[in-house]
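User: Here's a chain of 160 residues. Predict its fold as tokens.
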Amino acid sequence: MAKTMEQSVNVNDVSRISTGTSMKGEINSPSDIRIDGSFEGKVISKGRVVIGDKAVISGDIICENVDFWGKMTGALYVRDTLALKEGCVVNGDLHVKRLSVELGARFEGNCKMLAEGEFEKVAGEVSSAAPAHASAAGNSAASSPVHSSSKSSLGGVSLK
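Assistant: Prediction complete.
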């Protein structure tokens, strides 16, 4: 019998924003995060982020992997794999190493496929900056579905 290794996640190690919960601000977590409610701000995780089908996100997500079913306006910075699931709606820029898109997923914006070692540089530019949607609030670009935070040049982030 072949031995398989499965990644085990302790339920107490997963941060969660439940359906009906609304939060604003910044989340910094060394472990996995699941969002089923609404969140405005920045999410930084060294683990997997799961965005449930009822979730509404406005801001940036910087993490290792994402499984995405909900709705979002903002930028995604993913060290490894972003999986856009059927029914999701993403308006913003993607910066990913690997991208999986199911039939029925909607994405409007730019996609940058990251090379090895490029994640730290790109994610570091936004880790300490205001979310892309907030920095555009003072100009007419705020009504555009695609926002860019490429003008930021603040400190680095490392998810190692």
